[in-house]
Write a structure and sequence with these properties.
Length: about 120
């Protein structure tokens, strides 16, 4: 289920954010609304596209890779399934009463390591 999230004014001038394309920035904000309260979501570009850009002809996979290359999203695997983690989620969002995790909790040991060429 989507959640109401906030965007702080300093988001727009953050050094990592300004390096991204406009659509990647919008997708990044969109991931916050569909991530669980721990900053994790399914790593499905098809699902993310349907959630964030339902009526637009936008390919999300290149945008996800762009955000990963900037370190704004991290892939991790648990039980043979791939997820995305938003490392700066707590920087951007304050969760007073977190709900239950919908994805396995992210741990550094679960990161999928890829080179930039593999992204």
């Amino acid at each position: 289920m989507a959640r109401i999230r906030t965007i702080k004014p300093e988001f727009w001038t953050d050094g990592e954010i300004v390096e991204c394309s406009t659509n990647a920035r919008l997708l990044f904000v969109g991931t916050w609304t569909f991530a669980d309260d721990f900053g994790n979501l399914d790593r499905s570009s098809k699902q993310i596209k349907a959630q964030v850009f339902p009526a637009d002809s936008i390919e999300c996979e290149p945008l996800i890779r762009e955000l990963m290359a900037q370190g704004l999203l991290v892939e991790y695997s648990s039980n043979c399934k791939i997820y995305l983690h938003i490392p700066t989620f707590k920087k951007h969002q304050r969760i007073d009463r977190p709900g239950p995790a919908r994805c396995p909790i992210f741990e550094d040991s679960l990161i999928i390591h890829r080179t930039l060429d593999e992204l």
